[in-house]
Amino acid sequence: MRHYIFIFLLLLQAVLLSSPLAHAQRGLKRAGTVAPQDTPTVASQDTALVAGQDSLNMAAPQGDIATTIKYSARDSMQFEVDQKVVHLYGDAKINYGDMNLEAAYIQINYETNTLTATTLPDSTGKEAGTPVFTQGAETYAAKRIAYNYKTRRGRISEVVTQQGEGYIHSEVVKRNENNEFFGLHNKYTTCNLEHPHFYINAGKIKAIPNDKVMAGPFNLVIGDIPTPLGFLFGLFPTPKSKRASGVIVPSYGENARGFYLNNGGYYFAWNDYVGTRLTGDIYSLGGWNAEASTDYVKRYAYRGSFRFTYDNFKNDEADIERSRTTDNPLSQLPSSRQTFWINWNHSPVTKPGRGSFSASVNAGSQLHQRINYNSSAQYLSPTFNSNVSYQKTIPNSPFSYTIKASQGQSTQTGTMNFVLPDLNFSMSQVSVSELFSDEPGTNKWYEKFTLSYNVRASNTVSNLQPARTRSDFPLLESAPADTIDINFDNLQRLWDSGQKQAVHAFGIGLGNYKIARFFNFSPSVNYSETWLDEKYTFNFNPDSQRVDIDTTNFGRVYQYSAGANLSTTVYGTVNFKPGGKVEAIRHLVRPSISYNFRPDFADERFGFYQRTLVGVDPNSNQAQYRDLGRFRSGLPATGLSSALNFSIDNSIEMKVKAKSDTAEVKTEKVSIIDNLRLSSGYDFARDSLKLADIRISMNTKLFRFINMNFNTTLDPYEKNDSTGRDIDRYYFDLLKGRLGRVTNASLNLTASLNPEAMRSESPTPDNLPSLEREPFDPMLPQYVDFKIPWTLNVNYTMSYNRSFGLVGRSNLTQTAGIDGSLNVTEKWKVTYNATYDISNQNISYANVQIYRDLHCWDMSIGWVPFGLQRGYNLTINARSSLLQDLKLTKRSRTGYNY
Question: Where is the signal peptide (predicted)?
Fold first, then answer.
């Protein structure tokens, strides 16, 4: 009997190989969309059943099928030879070129050239095995798919497909040979749930993959509630990682300048490396804003951006508010002003041996940043700085150079300072023996000597020019400053008024030496020289009772000093009896003594200062003389200096037994004092008050999460009760424990609480967040981290200053701050920030932000209850960048930018 079954299977195989079904195994052409097809044919009784996981890969002559078709099924495959139909059951798969089809059931009809895929009920009666159609980067999931591989057309029912960042839910979809599909009764959304939170309801949609989605009349549906928001047609770009030009839809809202349309314009994608945005704003109370922004990048070379903004600020309500109250921020703004601002950032990719060009430019009109600020830091920033530079290190040499231009401006005074040009050439520290000899290792006495050199040539220009010094008895005074307007007509005047100089600095190292095995001795010599474009000569004019000034075009100033440093390290350890929690305490002491000598450069032999008659005292009829500096800058300090400076650094740590779940005994180090420093100096060359102020500083960590920093300055001398000046008589007394009078002191305590850090047995500074490392930007809700349950940062700052004499007074200021975050639920987060002025008993700043994760939406509520920026801000926006203009914003008009 077995022989008959075997012969029957051989005959069946021969029939299959000779049938048209075998010729169909050559594969299918590129899939398109197809016309509707009938329900799959049910397998008849004359079919052959092949059980198990099978796969066929057969060849046939060329026909409608252009490549190999591979198909398989987990449960079974049925062949209807006479009908030319194949049925695939259970995890059915078809692979055809770049097209893949997976479903619970797939039918292949070679007579009609169609593929049909549907779901099948499982053991519980639930539909399973949703058909998934993949072609290239596109994926479609539907309950029923019918596809004609010859015409490349198809029909997909109840499909969900992704186009870019959007998802399209359609009852019926048809595809054509151009790979475009047309949907009927559609929902377009960026929510990735099966039942989306919101969608754009459109009867008809046409999608061109990697290009755009076009819709007919549509309206917005939120939470299954239709809204009247919609339009006669819709166009949603869906480019695939490709830059494209297009219209930028403006956003709308309301602020202190009235109702507005913001950031509307056009984007030009010149190529894959350069793009330009031209946008503008318009306000109902008058005024407008225009901006041109260009981003550029060159792979492995540089990237950057350039932005130019022009603002025509006009607010007729400013005069009204100014007349009513000065408390409203509108009263502090002009009623009309034209301003501009330039931002340029260029960052190179640094490569060894190659120069690098970088730029960071922030410059413009004085009031522009106050009128158009986006953050508190931008509004309160007193200065803005810009610089453009080129830097290069010469390969295989210690030399490098930098060419730089910089600018700084004050938003309060309008003063602008320029350094143009700014040239720097330097030689890094090299051994003198290597510099002057080619014979290494000669053991010469000068081998430890090192030399470094730096020269900086610059021209410093300011639009605020002080007048020349003149004499009004009995003191020299300056005439009022002269302000030069920044424009093309005054460029020559600005350049001529610049201060041109070249500063040469030599670093001479004399090596490090061991003395008595435990002491480090380091001598040093310093020399610097400055070349300037002006040198003054002073002459007193008895007729005008003033000092006349003669100027030469070149001057040279130099200064030098010599010194030495002696330091060592002392350890002390106290061990405790075994069995206790504390095993040992270690004290580390680092004393250091240095001596420095500098001559009196006010001596006439140097020629840097000139002893000049400035007038005659009318009361005593005596001539008055003063030492006047003969240069505008670079003048060395006056007076002979022969100073001995000393300092003592201390650190104390403790070795304790650590908690452990095992029987093994573990120890850890706990810092008691990170550093305690005491420093002062004694100048032998002074005739009185030789001892310098005593400075004490300490920093440590308390209870593992509180950082403490303390600084104070002590005056060691007695004070004159009437003038408050020092008397050459010591106030400190070591027997009485008195080091000096406190002239200033500061204390800062910062506690950063974090549940993860509190759980750690041996926390490190890295897992203790600081106020600077955890900013909460209300303008960027998408960066809110909902994983951290809560954070709390508390800080306290105290500052004390004291003056002496009849009008002596003490000034104590104290501030306390708190900031942090709290996850009320998995989707709700609150951040807060407040500063309280203890001295004046008022809240100087407070800010509360509430964030809500709405899955495919974001909601943020900001509230500033005090100050110039007080007000609230409510924003609800779609999370997807594709629908970035789909948002609702409400801002109060109390603060300017809210």
Answer: 1-24
